[in-house]
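Quick start: what a row looks like.
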Amino acid sequence: MSFIKSFFISFYIMNSHFLNQANAIIDIQNNCPFTIWAAAVPGGGRRLEYGDTWKIEPDMTTSSTKKGRIWGRTNCNFDSLRRGQCQTGDCNGLLECQTFSSTPPNTLAEYALNQFNDADFIGISLVNGFNIPMEFSPVFADECSTRIRCTADIIGQCPNELRTPGGCNNPCTIFKTGEYCCTFGNCGPTNYSKFFKDRCSTSYSYPSDDLSSLFTCPSGTIYKIVFCPLCIIHKYIFLT
């Protein structure tokens, strides 16, 4: 790394920490060749065309805003009052999402910042199913080397019984049983969760899938979430 590049990275990090010491920084980028309506709780919502970015700054001073979710919504229509509907990931018909509740299927990025031992906990979850390929990683590898990606062709390979327009459903949405919805406390993997795990090994495939799906970085790390990080998108995501 050249001295100039190293200097500007260090300058950016130091100024970000100084100016935003009470806030985390998460950069959200749409690399998909179609529109994504990004959702963040806390944060709200934003329409992102290809190449657009959106920076959110979760408040680190209160416990309720240290934990959050970010996801992408597809095929949305909103009116002048910012109300409407999305084919996947809808949040009560609002452009500006207010709760963690969303309509499956949707790929989720989840985080808990500034936790035990000054660590951040981050992960990608397919517990709500899958609708968009995603990456969740630090902006600068010098801060943390963790990089989580889920870019497999899950929609194209989705079992027939889980298929839905725009995505691949989780089994709980379809079957509504304790086995798949984990209504009996700790639950284990199923044939359907293994389908997701085999394709995205570092993503949550069921609620207790912590061992291989929960990652840590030092508190204060600057993160990025990229929709379609490899930009290998099949027409069925957009057209179905």
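That is the whole record. Residues 107 and 130 are 5 Å apart (CA to CA). The first helix runs from residue 3 to 19.
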